[in-house]
Write a structure and sequence with these properties.
- This protein has about 140 residues and is of the alpha+beta class.
- The chain has a domain of about 90 residues: 2,3-Dihydroxybiphenyl 1,2-Dioxygenase, domain 1, CATH 3.10.180.
- It is about 20% helix and about 20% strand.
- The chain has three helices and six strands.
- Strands 3-6-5-4 form a four-stranded mixed sheet. It has a two-stranded antiparallel sheet with strand order 1-2.
- The longest helix is centred in the middle third of the chain and has 13 residues.
- The radius of gyration is 15 Å and the shape is globular.
Length: about 140
Amino acid sequence: MDISFVAGFGPITRDDTARAFWSEGGLGIPLEEPAPGYFANDSLQGVKAFALWPLAQAAESTFGTTTWPEDLPVPQAWLELDVASPQAVSDAIAELTASGHRVLKAVTEEPWGQTTARLQSPEGLLVGVTFTPWMHSGSE
């Protein structure tokens, strides 16, 4: 089998209120309703990375410990949404915080050069808002 790219990724929602996190009042992804209760966007560009991320590593990267906090849902998946610059990460996190979303990891420049911040979606996905310089056009 030769997988060429990830064609789609998204959460399995439990209630109608989750849409606000992904679209209005949240990350701002425009969504259409092609079928009742099914909200989609087929115009976002593709995924640059797909990885199996061990929970202990996700916890270490987010909280500085290999144990996931008991007061948070254990994530079933991760999603990173790259933005145009490190400042755009800060701006996005400020906007999300102002909208009442809980940030789990503040904006940080990682040792490998990626700027990251993390929060958790209503479905329990670990969501990173990131700037990954080498994934942008014209980067080395």
